[in-house]
Write a structure and sequence with these properties.
With 446 residues, the protein is α/β, with parallel strands linked by helices. The chain has helices at 4-11, 55-64, 75-82, 117-123, 259-265, 302-313, 315-320, 345-354, 379-385, 387-394, 409-422, 428-437; strands spanning 19-25, 45-51, 68-74, 164-173, 183-189, 202-206, 220-223, 237-243, 246-248, 255-257, 272-279, 292-298, 329-336, 359-365, 399-405, 441-445.
Amino acid sequence: MYNQGAVESAANIESGSRIFVYEVVGLRQNEETEKTNYPIRKSGSVFIRVPYNRMNQEMRRIARLGGKIVSIETGSALQQVNGTSSSFDTSSEASTPTTSGEIAETEGNGIATPVDANGEVKGFGKSPTEQQPKKKDKKGNTMTQAKAKHADVPVNIYRPNAPFIGKCISNQELVGEGGIGTVRHLKFDLTGGDLRYIEGQSIGIIPPGLDKNGKPEKLRLYSIASTRHGDDVDDKTVSLCVRQLEYKHPETNETVYGVCSTHLCHLEPGTEVKITGPVGKEMLLPEDTNAKVIMMGTGTGIAPMRAYLWRMFKDAERAANPEYQFGGFAWLIFGIPTSPNILYKEELEEMQQKYPDNFRLTYAISREQKNPEGGRMYIQDRVAEHADELWKMIKEENTHTYICGLRGMEDGIDAALAAAAAKEDIVWATYQKELKKAGRWHVETY
């Protein structure tokens, strides 16, 4: 579960420091809550400070909790980057793996973006003034959003101990009459700050109040649903797609509502919000404007895909990005329970009608459509239905695939593509590993 060579290297550094910082991804809930039927986010980076004499013990604990150590730094090395030591410690509440949806509570889209080890550590803890100078548009105006390439992606401009204080501009319901649950589209004002981001990244939201232990609530991560220029294409906003988390307690059977998602779904315009980040390099779009992009999402997993599609097809976005004029092909397979739960329906269908040769839209509406066996139509059934066509696309070197939504959806998708690959005597699991190495297979599930 961890890189032994990196461990030995870090342990042997003669820096005089006896504190090491682990960057860990994939932490899950504990053994008991793993048995429950509500999802807890698995992905996302956590930085854990570990004394030298506890390194092996901490590695075993991380492995038990499904985590993977992607980098190890000495405490002094991180100080050189941050100017201060990391705020995460094995003895602190922040480093404790989450249970019952604490720091990684799966709310809204609930997707924590897996981050590149080097990029994340490089950007971790830098204050806004330490970031690169703001870029300016053609008129000389400061651009608050990023126009970065993948090698220069902004990360952790704002940290939990020094968040950006934004304001809610609008809070709109996305689920139509007769739909299931509530999903809100929230737009936040970034004026006065230096929060820059690009499509496919996430931001953290710190809800107000105290947790069950009497300590300040911890941040929850949400995928960004807007392009780097924001919904108003003025470089002053960021948007989220948030579902109110609601589930039955496994022991009491009482209805439990997510702390952060409930806070956000009931947020009034003008209310201040603590924002951290951005984070994430796993879900970024390729720079190739002629790429083929396959998107498979469920529910609020649509968030990053909305950002992609806006960048590709929205008129105002295309005007704002003369260097990025998408001429490739995008295919969205979107799984939802009912027609009223089709999030951003008008936007999606308008883009499909305007760019029929470049954008294909396929729904899997589980409670209204039937699969070939007569059961509910889930996203994996749609993938199976189009498996040969998808497989043909995936084999092309300029195709990128993005999967975002509920954990477990990958299994059905893999099974469908494995069947298509097997027709050519290709082992899908092996082929998929090569796609990941090439940076063409992107997955975030929660």
